[in-house]
Design goal:
The chain has helices spanning 2-27, 84-89, 107-113, 116-119, 123-135, 140-147, 151-160; strands spanning 43-44, 49-57, 63-73, 80-81. By secondary structure, it is α+β, with helices and mostly antiparallel strands. Among the domains are: 32-73, no CATH class; 83-160, no CATH class. A hairpin with a 5-residue loop joins β2 and β3. The radius of gyration is 23 Å and the shape is globular. The relative contact order is 0.11.
Length: 184
C-alpha cells in the first residue's frame, strides 16, 4: 500500500516537473497574436518578425484592436517588447497603426529619435527607423548628424548630396546585396 502511494507521488512529482519545464519554455516566447494593444506596437516576436497593431471596425461601429505578425523581420532582435520609456523618449505612440518615412521629415520627431536616450538606448526602435530611412535612401546616422544643426537644411543637404538612393531601374536585379544593418 505504501509503495503504491509512493509510486503515485513520484509519478505526480515527475509529471509536475515535466509540465512546469514545458510551461517555462513557452512563457518566454513572444507571439504577436497573444499581445494586447498596449504591448503590440514596436514588439518583435520570438521568430524575429515585427508585430503590428491593426484596428478593425465591426458592423456595429465598435472598434476592435488586434495584434498580428508582419512579414518584416528585425535585424538581430527577437523576443522583444519595447519599453514604455523607449516609446516615450523616441516620441512614439503605442497606438500607432503603421509608420511612415514622412515622420523623418518632422523636426520634432527626428530630434527625439536622434536623442541620446533613444538612439543609444532603444536598439529596436533605431533598427526599425534605420531600415525605414534606408528604404528612402537616407542614412539615419547622417540624418541625426544633420539634425544637430538645422533639420530642414540637413534634409535638403542629404537629399541633394547623393545620399538618396536612385529609383529602381526596370529589368535590373541586384543579387548578393545585403540590407543595411542598424548601428548598435
Amino acid at each position: 500500500m505504501a509503495s503504491t502511494i509512493s509510486r503515485k507521488m513520484t509519478l505526480a512529482i515527475l509529471a509536475l516537473a515535466l509540465f512546469s519545464s514545458c510551461l517555462q519554455a513557452t512563457l518566454g516566447e513572444i507571439i504577436c497574436e497573444h499581445l494586447d494593444q498596449d504591448t503590440c506596437a514596436y514588439a518583435v516576436a520570438s521568430t524575429g518578425k515585427r508585430c503590428v497593431l491593426e484596428k478593425h471596425v465591426k458592423r456595429s461601429g465598435e472598434e476592435e484592436y488586434t495584434c498580428r505578425t508582419s512579414e518584416i523581420e528585425a535585424d538581430k532582435i527577437n523576443n522583444w517588447i519595447e519599453t514604455d520609456q523607449c516609446v516615450k523618449s523616441c516620441g512614439l505612440d503605442r497606438k500607432s497603426f503603421g509608420i511612415s518615412s514622412d515622420s523623418l521629415l518632422e523636426s520634432r520627431f527626428t530630434e527625439m529619435l536622434c536623442s541620446p536616450q533613444c538612439y543609444n538606448g532603444c536598439p529596436n526602435v533605431i533598427d526599425l527607423y534605420f531600415n525605414l530611412a534606408a528604404g528612402e535612401g537616407i542614412f539615419l546616422p547622417k540624418l541625426c548628424e544633420a539634425q544637430k544643426g538645422n533639420i530642414r537644411r540637413g534634409m535638403s543637404e542629404i537629399r541633394s548630396s547623393g545620399m538618396v538612393a536612385p529609383g529602381p531601374v526596370g529589368g535590373v536585379k541586384f543579387w548578393g546585396v545585403a540590407p543595411a544593418m542598424a548601428p548598435y
